[in-house]
Every structure is written in structure tokens, then in C-alpha cells.
Amino acid sequence: MQNNNQVLQGKKSVLILILGVLSAIGPFSIDTYLAGFPKIASDFKVSIDYVSYSLSSFFIGISVGQMLYGPLLDRFGRKTPLLIGLVVYLLASLGCAVAPSIEILIGLRFVQAVGGCVGMVAPRAIVRDLFPLHESAKVFSLLILILGVSPIIAPSVGSFMISALGWHSVFFLQAAMGLTLFLSVFFVLQESKGPDESVSLKPRPITRTFWKVFTNTQFFTYAFAGSLVAAGLYAYVSGSPLVFMEIHGLTEQQYGWLFGFLASGLILSSQLNNLALKWFTSEQIVKVSIPLQVFFGITLVVLSLFDLHSIYSIVALLFLFFCCQGFSFPNSSALSLVPFAKEAGSASALMGALQMGFGALSSALVGVFANGTELPMTGIIASFSTLGLLVFVIGRRKIKMTSGS
Asked: 3-state class of 175 per DSSP?
């Protein structure tokens, strides 16, 4: 295994850039095609709600795929599984571009997610390999900065390409991104943790490792709380085309700009998180950010129930919710991985699977409860956030009892 200091020396900025773009592969694959829902529905002669199942299948693929990559990253190192996953993503993206039916598109989106999700698992494990807790939360914030470029640029690029070239073009764009990342990883990224032959790929040891991670109180508390709260973002992604384009009448271009504006809240707060970490611990920050997300989520629901929302009120509350997420995500992620060194890949995979599993569930529920109003989206945001807060409160008590403090 290479010396971690050698990996970092003089190359930290390049490393963070590559890891950030890899982390963005999932959001990029979502954001670029959202504005195409109406045209995809029209071409395949189905409803927009039916097209949203291609989004749900993508989330499911990411959730399942991350569980596969965890043991592979621990056994074969970080780089080889990354390269294989990016090849799968590239080929599936090309398949999506020429899909002859909505059912095939839904299936290929699942395969695309299974390939691409390695770009979401490996960076977290690499950060755990190279940085201690006080540094890792800051690095995760920097990753969010790069990650946040996707929802600002991608919807606008996607909507422009869809208007000019059709919805198929965005999947060719995604294939190009996959090829670029493959070349970057192959030629530039250095290995942060070499192969470990002591890591077994047999079902029983893999299950035992995941169970060890899952039953760790600190992991359970922060991974579940963070994932449940983050599920609100996926409910927003799934429900926002209907809410903003159908209910509030925005055009594809206006929707793209609004999507980017809301994402800017996540970017801004993630960088403020770096400053906050100079004076507060990750635990103290999460203790404030998660309850605030619950407050904004419940306010969204109350206004929806009484039909009091204007486009300004819903955008303002979603913006504040996103701002809180910029504090919750990097700190809950860093705290989840603290107990693990050897099993960092599996822990990262399990955390990612939880995030995307709850994300898939929340996005699917938006479609299930769709009734032509804002309530399914806002209600699911509030419900998942509240569950996250409950897990956080109960889990923190158990951690204190275990530590004797």
C-alpha cells in the first residue's frame, strides 16, 4: 500500500477535484435529464409519473450497487473497482440514449446507476484513508462544493440540449462524462489503499463485516439520521418537475435556473461549514442543523395543507432546507466513518446504500401519492426529516450511555 503522505504531497487539489467530480456522477446523471420528463413521456406515450420510475430505478441501482462495491474496494483497492464501474456506466449511458421503450430506459437506468455509483462510494473511502476526522469533514465540504456545481450547471445544460437536440442527447453527454472520468482515474488518480487479501469476498464474511458496521452505534446513529434527512432532497428531485413546471408553470429553462439557485444554498452552507468547524465540533453542528431541517420541512407541509404556498414561499423554504443540508451531510458522513479503518470501503458503501435506499423510497413515494398538488413532495420531505431527528436523538443517548459520559 502506498504511503498516504506521498499520495497527498503536492496533489491535494487535484485529488479533491477528481473525487468531487466522481461524487457528482450520480447527481449529474439525474439533473441533466429532469427537464426532459415531458418530452420522454410524450415520445413513449406515457405519463410523467411513469417516467419518474426511471429516476426511482436509478436510485435503487445506486443503493444496490454500493453494497457490491464496498467489499470490492476493501479487497482490490480503490482504483480497479473504480475503472470497472465507470466502464459499465459508460456503456449503459449509451444504451439509455438509444432506448426504444420506457421499460428498457428504466432498466438501463438501473444498470447505469450500478456502474456509476462506484464514483460515490470510492471517494468517501479514499477520504477516510487519507484524512483524520477534523480534516475529513472539511474535505467532504469541499467535495460538496464541486458536487454542487452539478445542480447549478447540469439542469441548464440539460434543458438546452433537450430543447435543441432532444432528450437522447443528455445520455450521450453522460457517456462523455464517464469516459472523461475513466481516463482521469486511469492516468491521474493514485491508489490510496492497495489490495488486501485478508478481505474475503465470500458471502458469510461479507455479511459479517456489514453487520459489524451496521451494529456500530455511532455508525447507525449518524448514517441513518443523515440518510433520512437527506431523503428529503430526493423527494424534491422527484417532485420538482411537477411542482414547478406543471403547477407553477415554469418553462424548462426557468426550471433549470431555479434548480441551480436552490442548489447554491447547499454549496454556500457546505463552505460555511468549513468555517464553523474552526469553532464547533461536527457533533455540535449536526445537533443544530437536523432540527432546523425538520422545522423547515414541517412548515412546507403546513403551507401545502392550507394551500398557502406561492412559488416564492416554497422556493424560500426549500432553499433554507438545502442550506441546513450543507451542514448535516459532511458532518454526519465524517462521524459515521470514524470507527472504521480496515472496513472503510464497506462502511462507505453501507452509508451510501442507506442514503440512496431512502432516496429511492422517498422519490418513489412522491410518485405513489401524486395527486397534482405540492403535498406529496412536501409531506415526504417533512416525514423523512422527522424520522431522521428521532434516530439522531435516540442514537446520541445510546452513544453517551456506551461511552459513560
From this structure: helix
pLDDT at residue 1 in the model: 43
Report DSSP letters for 77-110, one per residue.
-SHHHHHHHHHHHHHHHHHHHT-SSHHHHHHHHH
Annotate 243-285 with DSSP letters as a single string.
IIIIIS---HHHHHHHHHHHHHHHHHHHHHHHHHTTTS-HHHH
Residues 6+ apart with CB under 8 A from 153: 260
Q: Could you give the CA distance from residue 188 to residue 14 in angstroms, rounded to a whole number?
A: 9
Q: What is the dihedral of CA 252, 269, 365, 255, to 10 degrees?
A: -10
pTM for the whole thing? 0.71
What b/e string do you get for 384-403 counting C-beta neighbours within 10 Å, with b at 16 or more?
bbbbbbebbeebbeebeeee
pLDDT at 181 over 70: yes
Mean pLDDT calculated for residue range 182-187: 93
The three-state DSSP-derived secondary structure of 148-166 is CHHHHHHHHHHHHHHHHHC
- Per-residue pLDDT tens digits for 309-332: 778 888 999 999 999 988 988 888
**Residue, of 191 and 301, whose pLDDT is higher:** 301
- C-alpha 159/C-alpha 170 separation (Å) is 9
Counting Cα atoms < 13 Å in the Cβ hemisphere of 84 gives: 13
- Residue 16: burial class (beta carbons within 10 Å; 0-12, 13-18, 19+): middle
Single-letter residue type at 280? F
Q: What angle do CA 262, 158, 233 make, to 5 degrees?
A: 35
The CATH code of the domain at 9-403 is 1.20.1250.20
